[in-house]
Amino acid sequence: MTAFGSFIKKEFLHILRDKLTLLIVVGMPVAQLLLFGYAITTEVRNAEIAVYDPVNDALTKRIIERLDASKYFNVGERITSTDRIDRVFREGRTSLVVVFSDGFSGDLLNGEASVQLIADGTDPNQASMITAYAGSILSSVAQELAEESGVRRATVTPVVRMLYNPQGKSAYNFVPGVMGMILMMICAMMTAIAIAKEKETGTMEVLLTSPVKPLLIIIAKAIPYLVLSIFLLALVLVCAVFVMGVPIAGNFLALCGVSVLFLACNLFLGLLISTVVNTQMAAMIASGMGLMLPTMLLSGLIFPIESMPAALQWLSTVVPARWYIQAIRMIMIQGSPVACIMPEVGILSLMAIVFIAISLGNFKTRLS
Amino acid sequence: MLSFLIEKEFKQMFRNPIIPKMLVALPLMAMLVFPWAANQEVKNVRVDIVDNDHSSLSEKISAEIAASAFFNVSGTSGTYTEALDKVDSDDADMIFNIPQDFEKCLVNGEAAPMVVATNAVNGTKGTLGASYLVSMISGSSVFNEYSEKAAGAAAAAAVNIPSFSVTTQYRFNPSLDYKVFMVPALIVLLLTLVCGFLPALNIVGEKEAGTIEQINVSPVGKFQFILAKLIPLWILGFVIMAFGLVVARLVYGIVPEGSLETLLLFSSVYVLVVSGFGLIVSNYASTLQQAMFVNYFFIMIFFLMGGMFTPVASMPGWAQVIAALNPLKYFIEVMRLVYLKGSTFIDMVPQFLTLCGFALVFGLCAVVTYRKSS
């Protein structure tokens, strides 16, 4: 056991004596969380509208003012000809053009009055949200007009409740996602180099001639990084809660538990990469470039898993971050009971065991 | 001399055990797999229906929701709280609650509001899902009969209700297809990954292997040295760009509205920008791990704060300032403008000058920060 203890000490010294790398490893996740937590947002805010208003009377003015007053829109250019619509879009700033029909106010009673919403469809979701918001403002004006004329109709419009996130803050969705992505990448990249480095610098021979068993060598490699990454997790959580204002609605201990499990899982994944490759360059390419795309695109961070085709949904099940992000969205934001995240916990535990078993299988005790 | 150096770079690249594999696997993944994943379209929203009314009307509405391609009725609950538990445990995304005596109230012209409660953790999905359901219900033909019945005698005068119609049209991407939006972006992503990461690992790799010593004592100048590193990446960038354009056309049928030459011109400048940046990182780093961490940090910022996935216009002001310093933002804009809107070079001169500025600054910095003496 003393040999195991000194192994862990050796690994700690490896980390602590490379001050610059340590600084990068600690500073980077916090900086990324703060940047991405604020910057990744799909809320519609102050979208530029251009208006084509051939009537220009009290009613159309009232509608335009209503649009301008909402937090979603800023009315910018008043265009005077429909030929300019394409031009306005090509210049790139305007996302919606509102076109009133000729003689809009006069046609209100004969059913020919119309408003056309022409949106820039480049970004499909932004375009649908923008037209949905504009449409609901227009229909509330229509409702008012009907009431002003003295006609009463039973309303069938349902009341909408936004659960967990009534203000529709993007941070509630993206902060758990960003946490999952950052922690996964940094943990895997840290340990991916650990064994590859020993192979390249030749110190692997010394390790292999020691009486310590391969399993213990691998675990001794992981423990100091686990301590470091738990420290990172604490930093990231403090930032998420106190700086970004994301709540921890559910059980705090469950959140910590599933997070530590996730960290361990990724550290083992890094070690697995490290046992497969022979050079540090290969370790960095595999962990950095190889993992970046799957964690960014298949984890549910930006693109919802349920919108993907079945084959990709199936592929995404091997990305640990997918399960972690799903679990902490439930625990942090929804405040779901702990029992709800048991499937995710089970899958992450299974992954950790599989990763460590494969690393052990790949770990060659013979000198080449 | 330069040609020998370039030959050396190519040999180093292709004789490396992992780089050639990566150069095959990464483009295939990025262009053939990820366009299917990069989809924020809201569909298959799971609705849990709470029917407190049990009338023929409430059944008709429920059937209408079930028939929609957009919603999946995942179940029904006896009470609203029961349905909330389902949302808590992620077994449903949305609750549709029909109040007691709903039909009776409607016939009498009284208000008995239905409730749509949606899981809004993902704000986009919550907002769009709720707004689709609301517009489906409000426009439902099931209600029109009732409204007319309820209005009764007043209905005769209903012709005089002032109203206007609202129509919606989407330009440039009328079917709101996510691939049209994402495939040009994924070409940029691929180009950035390959031409941004390889140079970052390059010089520091030579430092760690010790071979940089030989270059340092040779008569190769700093400028020549950096140029010899940039030219192979530049050629590689062209190959990747061509691959991306061909796949976009053959697999997804996405063809630029504007000119191909414009795209190639912009990409040739852009490759210099990201490779120059990678070389600067490599000059400063003393180990491969440092180079990788630092480069990963910046490339993630390029990707996530450049409007590739989420709009720059929605970011807070300070983040937009950072985005303005992000070369990828300009190249993404150009790709989408040319691909979707057919903008011409004249429209995009500001972007071109900005990218040239980046290329010049990063290139010069890469030369200056490379030191032949340790």
Tag the structure with descriptive keywords.
heterodimer; A: 368 residues; alpha/beta; four-stranded mixed sheet; 5 strands; 64% helix; elongated; B: 374 residues; 15 helices; 8% strand
Overview of the structural elements:
The complex is a heterodimer of chains A (368) and B (374). Chain A is of the alpha/beta class. Helices cover 64% and strands 9% of the residues of chain A. Chain A contains 13 helices and five strands. A four-stranded mixed sheet of chain A has the order 2-1-3-4, sandwiched between helices. In chain A, helix 3 links the parallel strand 1 (47-52) and strand 2 (73-79). In chain A, helix 2 packs across helix 8, helix 6 packs antiparallel against helix 8 and helix 8 crosses helix 9 (252-276). Chain A is elongated, with a radius of gyration of 28 Å. By secondary structure, chain B is α/β, with parallel strands linked by helices. Chain B has 15 helices and five strands. Chain B has helices spanning 2-15, 19-37, 56-67, 80-88, 102-108, 123-138, 141-151, 178-209, 212-216, 222-250, 260-284, 288-304, 317-324, 327-341, 349-369; strands spanning 45-51, 71-77, 94-98, 115-119, 165-171. Chain B has a four-stranded mixed sheet with strand order 2-1-3-4, with helices on both faces. In chain B, helix 8 runs antiparallel to helix 10 (222-250), helix 11 (260-284) runs antiparallel to helix 14 and helix 14 packs antiparallel against helix 15. The two termini of chain B are 24 Å apart. Residues 153-158 of chain B have low confidence and may be disordered. Chains A and B meet through helix 2, helix 4, strand 4, helix 5 and strand 5 of A and helix 2, helix 4, strand 4, helix 6 and helix 7 of B.
